[in-house]
Amino acid sequence: MGSRFDEMRIFAGNGNLPLARAISDRLGVPLGDITIVKFSNENIFVKLNESVREKDVFVIQSLSMPDLSDRIMELLIMLDACKRASAGRITAVIPYYAYGRTDKKDQPRVPITARLLADMIQVAGAHQVMTIDLHAGQIQGFFSIPMDELTAMNLLVRYFADKGWNDLIVVSPDVGFAKRARNFAEALNAPLAIAEKRRLQHFDRKDGSLTVPEILNLIGDVRGKRCLIVDDEIATGSSILEVVQLLEKEGASEIYACCVHAVFAGNAIERLRASSLREVVVTDTLPIPPERRWPGLTILSVSTLIAEVIQRIHSGVSVDTIFQHRRHPALS
User: Fold this and answer.
1) 1 lies in a domain?
2) Is 58 exposed, middle or buried (0-12, 13-18, 19+ CB in 10 A)?
3) What is the number of other CB atoms lying within 10 angstroms of the CB of residue 39?
4) Are 255 and 326 found together in one domain?
5) What mean pLDDT comes out for the span 99-117?
6) Which of these is catalytic: 38, 197, 206, 249?
7) How many structural domains comprise the chain?
8) pTM for this entry
9) Partner of 268 for a Cys bridge, out of 122, 227, 264, 315, CB 3.0 to 4.6 A?
């Protein structure tokens, strides 16, 4: 099936330029010429330096730290610039969707920021959105335009499957992630353990934290086993490291961790490096500069996945067929 648009254009914000370049290289389409400037008054200026009229435009922007608010504004302004330049179709490619934890009103008088962000992206001009492993699946429903949520869990499964371990047990860091962790464990033909965690309501005025996690017990036997903690993202690392301590107490022989989104906020990297984790495996949905890496960190690239989906969207081919021959049935 051919595209109804003659040409594809790819533009990237500053959220994750290395990933955008890798996607561009795999597609054989150079990144579009764009100017993004932050003035001294902190206003952000964007200019497309080439025509996008009636073109199929893909705007790649990971909503990353630092300067998360700048990354969001860059995305919105780029989308608006494409819309006002008469782009034929505009797809927002957002490898990491920020504010994913604010997907519902779990307290009185709080916002649903994930929905607000979805509304802004649509108003700015996106015709459709592509993202990877949302923290909460219901965020898909916040969009009234087509939304493709890809998964990078298959990359993580293949990485650990290739190790050929026969004593592996997958560990969910909390009950809320247990279903996805169970699917991950089934894909590796491994048993599942669950860290039962309760959160005590607490507000820390220094860092704005609303909760403090407390690990209570472990459901499952990990004694003498290689343990793999799996989650969708690692932010401060507090939850992961509490699970590590629990697994050590329960007699685990080796402990590994993996996630899709390496947020690594605050001093997370220093804490992970100092822990007993043998290896932390993540993807490049968020940028990790060389100076923040360490020997125990492995980064898998999602560039091939995103590039293939972009090509399929441009060509009018079903996206789901990618996963039908690549994913384990347990991850369907």
Assistant:
1) no
2) buried
3) 8
4) no
5) 94
6) 197
7) 2
8) 0.91
9) 264
